[in-house]
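Dear support,

I submitted the protein below through the web form. The confirmation email said the job was done, but the results page showed an empty box. After a refresh the structure appeared. I'm attaching both so you can tell me whether what I see now is the final result or a partial one.
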Amino acid sequence: MYRLSRTVFIIFIGFFLLLNSGCAPGYMQDRGNDALDVLELGLTVNKDSKPQLGFYFDFFSLFPLGYAKVEGTAFGLGNRQAGKLDYLNNSWGVVVWGSEEKGIGIFDPRNPHQARPDQADLEEWPQYNVGLPRLIIEDNPPPDLHFFECNRGIHLGWIGFYMNVRPLDIIDFILGWTTIDMLGDDESRWD
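What the results page shows now:
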């Protein structure tokens, strides 16, 4: 009888720990989203035959450099989506002063990578100020998580590529397996 009660107790504790360890609904989806947040990468093409130009780099929203006026289609990864995605990059920067309006895929204002918490009612990609002096002087900063990104995009004529690396999201991905949501970007928190 002792062995049976001990076995039932161990099964109960194991079941309780399993439910609270992150194997609950949404846990694996959040881990997948954290993995997708680490890197955005792909090719860009025009939606029409008119050539477009983009040569824009942004280092942590503090040092923007270049110009981009590109609206097209992306093939790759971006904003937790993969495949054929809408692509927008209307940005400019002169190292210490700039403006960004960028987006890949479908815009979700609840995603802290895409919009600030005070922008929950937005329906399209917002435009932000970038560059250290401009961020100090004017009031329209990007979401906090943009300060931990290195964006790159080149588009010449009809084709190009984009890449965005988010080093802090690597740590968030690793910690997420322990149920710690360091960046507060797990979708299960948005509901």
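Response: this is the final, complete result; the empty box was a page-load delay. Residues 2-20 form the longest helix (19 residues).
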